[in-house]
Amino acid sequence: MCTRCMWLDLSKEDYIHYHDQEWGVPVLDDRTLFEFITLESAQAGLSWYTILKKRAAYKTAFAQFDVKHVAAMGEQDLIKLMNNTGIVRNEKKIQATINNAKAFIEIQRSHGSFASYQWQFVNYFPIVNQIMSKIDYHSQSELSVAFAKDLKQRGFKFLGPTTVYAHMQACGMINDHDNRCFRKQQIIDSYKNIDFAAIKSRGCLSL
């Protein structure tokens, strides 16, 4: 039997799948990063599992997370989204997603890719934290504070230090799997197959 992270609710099969297949795995392609940014900003004030259950609906509502399509959404799209029971019907959060898509594109223009911009905050290589007990988990860090501050200056909304830290964990910038979790070392072993330096030199990579 596999040992998994202590925060994981083992009664939820979809949560287990997310933990085993996605959480903490380095994400280097912009479409997936925009998906994670969108879902994390929607989570603010809610549980991640609530958003995970709505993930498929978000994917449909926001054009498979096509950032250009989302950035072009207007008033009629907003009305349609506010009537979509599959997503969090918070007008400010929905407006933030459209706003964040525009800011996301600006970063792509200035940095070549959002991946290149984002990964600079960990010097283009994952941080591996030592997690032995619940007290070793953090809700934010100096890096997430700096990342969130920079995002805010660039116009992003609903992405404070705590939300950004969760984003960094989710997309593998920070490996916060428990030391006893079977996925921790598996993900660390995968690093040798990833050319992280290429994120900086060539921009976005699709894995």
From TrEMBL:
This chain belongs to the protein called DNA-3-methyladenine glycosylase 1
| Residues in the signal sequence | none
Pfam families in alphabetical order: Adenine_glyco
> Keywords assigned by UniProt?
Glycosidase, Hydrolase
* InterPro entries in UniProt: Adenine_glyco (IPR005019), DNA-3mA_glycosylase (IPR052891), DNA_glycosylase (IPR011257)
Q: What class of enzyme is it?
A: hydrolase
Q: According to the UniProt entry, what is the EC number of this protein?
A: 3.2.2.20
GO molecular function per UniProt: DNA-3-methyladenine glycosylase activity
